[in-house]
Amino acid sequence: MLLLDILISGLVLGGMYALISMGLTLQYGVARIMNLAYGEFLVGAAFLAFWLYSSIGISPLAGLILAVPLAFLANWAIYRWLLTPLVRRAKSRGQLEVDSILATFGLLFIVQGIALVLFGGQYYSYGYLSVPVSILGTTLALNRVIAFIFAGLIGVGLYLALTRTRTGTAIRAIAVNPTAASLVAIDVRTASAFAFALGGAMVAAGGVLVSMFLTFNASMGVVFTMKALIVVIVGGVGNVLGALVVGLALGVIETGVTRLVDPGLTLAVTYALFMIVLLVRPQGLFGSAVR
Asked: What values do phi and psi take at 141, rounded to 5?
């Protein structure tokens, strides 16, 4: 059945969007850093998974154990050495957003340039569990199904950590009002650095999982950055549940447009929906209006 096929395939794709977007939600919604280099770390993790599998024979799922901590440490260092001076001098969150856009725009080209030197501009892929499986009559590659399952486990785990732990509560409080959070003894700068690093770890996990079934190259990071940004804004800045729901919905919508209309119109439909939400509900579908 075509509609069931679209739904299942779309949810698999949307699971990747949701996982990637939840990381940007932490970086932008909590630390208030508009990280334009966000997608480059996804591509970097994809290349790491490719190298581990093709050179050493380590499966990408095992590669998560290496890629995620490395990405966490790298993003913590970036926040500590590159972004903290911007945070200290910013007189408002709006100024911090503008400064972070300029800083991470430069970082984008640095990371992308290193990747181009190491791997060139050609496309890469590798065959890992690419055998077909049938789910309710829909045929999917096994690697896509496994990637979706891992993305779901990681995403649900993050959501539970943010809603059921003291650290998660502190992070959500900062996303709502950092000034009020500081008045109840929350270390805003430390928690923001942790949220930024955790967001980097999330996108690295997404990069490893995406590399299992997607062809990629060193210049694709900006595509993932824009998709994640759309999901974050439509879902509501700082709202992890919104990123999860909108990411899944976007995957279904794009798959539906590809199957029923024309694959060339997927980006057009995505940005059209983005503009409609901005006009009708600028705070996002799950966001709260600022008073």
From this structure: -75, 140
Asked if residues 208 and 48 have their Cβ atoms less than 8 Å apart, the reply is: yes
Q: Concatenated DSSP letters for 140-192?
A: EEHHHHHHHHHHHHHHHHHHHHHHHSHHHHHHHHHHH-HHHHHHTT--HHHHH
- How far, in Å, CA of 279 to CA of 37, rounded? 27
Return the amino acid letter for 148. Answer: F
Please give the angle made by the CA atoms of 263, 268 and 272, to the nearest 5 degrees: 140
* The one-letter amino acid at 8: I
> How sure is the predictor about 288, in pLDDT bands with cuts at 50, 70 and 90?
low
R_g (Cα) of the chain, nearest Å: 19
CB under 8 Å to 193, separation ≥6 — which residues? Answer: 31, 76, 79, 80, 84
If you ran DSSP here, which 8-state letter would residue 139 be given?
A: E
pLDDT at 206: 92
As a whole-number percent, the residues of the chain with pLDDT over 90 amount to 32
Q: Residue 51's CB: how many other CB atoms inside 10 A?
A: 16
The pTM is what? 0.89
Q: How far apart are CA 210 and CA 206, in angstroms?
A: 6
Strand partners, 141: 132
Q: By three-state DSSP, how is residue 246 classified?
A: helix
Q: How many CB atoms lie within 10 A of CB 56?
A: 8
What type of residue sits at position 147? A
SS3 271: helix
- pLDDT computed for residue 291 by the predictor: 46
121 Cβ partners below 8 Å, 6+ apart? 217, 218, 219
Decide if 201 contacts 75 (C-beta within 8 A).
yes
Q: Tell me: pLDDT of 94 over 70.
A: yes
